[in-house]
C-alpha cells in the first residue's frame, strides 16, 4: 500500500512557510534537530522509505534542521517541547 501524499499546493505552501522560517531563524540546535527527527520517526504520518511527511510532503531530515516556530513547521504540531 502506498502512503497518501499531499497535493502539490499543500507541498508548495509548506515549502514557503519553511523557507520563511529558515530565513528568519536560521538553523535549529542539534538538540532540537534530534528531538524533531525522533518525533518524526515515531509519527504515523512519517514515510520511512522516503523520509518524507505524508501530511506536508517535506523531506524531514532537512525540515527538522530549520530554526523557528515548531508549531508552524510541523503540520501536526508534534515538535512542541
State the order of secondary-structure elements, H for helix, E for strand: HHEEHH
What's the pLDDT, averaged over the residues? 93
Helix content: 40-55%
**Multimerization status:** single chain
Number of helices: 4
Low-confidence stretches: none
Q: Describe the main β-sheet briefly.
A: 2 strands, antiparallel
**What is the molecular shape?**
globular
Question: Radius of gyration from the CA trace?
Answer: 12 Å
> What structural category do the secondary elements indicate?
mainly alpha
Strand order across the biggest sheet?
1-2
Distance between the termini: 33 Å
Total beta-strand segments = 2
How much β-strand is present in the residues?
under 5%
Write the layout of secondary structure elements.
Layout: H1 8-25, H2 30-41, E1 46-47, E2 52-53, H3 60-63, H4 70-73
Antiparallel strand pairs: 1-2
Write up what this structure looks like.
The chain has 81 residues and is mainly alpha-helical. The chain is built from 4 helices and 2 strands. The chain has a two-stranded antiparallel sheet. The chain is globular, with a radius of gyration of 12 Å.
Keywords:
single chain, mainly alpha, globular, two-stranded antiparallel sheet, 81 residues, 4 helices, 5% strand, 2 strands
Can you give me a brief rundown of this structure?
The chain is mainly α. 47% of the residues lie in helices and 5% in strands.
Amino acid at each position: 500500500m502506498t502512503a497518501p501524499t499531499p497535493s502539490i499546493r499543500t507541498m508548495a505552501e509548506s515549502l514557503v512557510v519553511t523557507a520563511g522560517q529558515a530565513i528568519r531563524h536560521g538553523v535549529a540546535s542539534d538538540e532540537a534537530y534530534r528531538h524533531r527527527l525522533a518525533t518524526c520517526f515515531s509519527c504515523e504520518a512519517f514515510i520511512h522509505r522516503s523520509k518524507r511527511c505524508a501530511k506536508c510532503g517535506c523531506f524531514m531530515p532537512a525540515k527538522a534542521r530549520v530554526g523557528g516556530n515548531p508549531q508552524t513547521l510541523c503540520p501536526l504540531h508534534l515538535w512542541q517541547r
